[in-house]
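We store chain and fold; thus.
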Amino acid sequence: MSLAPRVVLVHRRTELAELVARHGTRGQAEFFLRTRGRDLTEVTEADAAVRAALAAASAAIPLDWRRGEVERADLDRFLFTPEDVVVVVGQDGLIANVAKYLDGQPVIGVTPGAPGVLVKHPAGAVADLLRSTGDVEHRTMAELTADDGQRLLALNEIYLGHAGHQTARYRLGVGSGTAERQASSGILVGTGTGATGWCGSVWRERGSALRLPAPGEARLVWFVREAWPSPTTGTSWTEGELTKTSLTVEVESDRLVAFGDGLEADTVALTRGQTATFAPAAKVVRLVR
């Protein structure tokens, strides 16, 4: 007998919940906000909107379906199963946070407020969306593979650089031919989803002639941040795209770190002599339209 589908609600603690946890009481949280020129009302309203969206999404789950719930902080300890339907309630970044833990499960992005790029559905649409999870758009992910087997996936971008944002030293290789020793502020490798974020900012600032990828396009772009020339380092290769080719980075600093989608707490550490390879990931995010 096959199992009924399971709907997993994904959310993160609201700012109000975090403030109360940090300061002990609502009164203390209100005092803290006032010292920074803010009002508790806006935080309370945002908290109420998230709770209402979660309640509406939960109520939309068919009675004969299974259900689960997980906060962002616990994603690395939660076991998703193949028959899950993932309902993310929050902001766009929360879908990026959960993406690397999935393997083909459909994702419904629910917004508690104004629609985002990824969380674009109101909670009232969840009941219908749960029955149309075959209508999806595929979002390409970026993947880093280290020579010791470590892997990192990201929906927006992967950053590789010095943990303290000091000079990163490495040898950069494009495909099977070009290689250059560089010193820079690090390397960004981004997807079409990430083209609206960090990579897009770098692209606009330098007036790049690269064509940014579309969200579902199996193509990545990469940028070297603030590379500078010296007698031993060059600046000939500071941007490019990855489709069938890969980007390799041989570490020449004592230690560099890589993290995806801005989560510095979840890093891959690489030491001198190790090599990291970037390429489009085989896994994609299946975002329900």
Q: What stands out?
A: The longest helix spans residues 40-59.
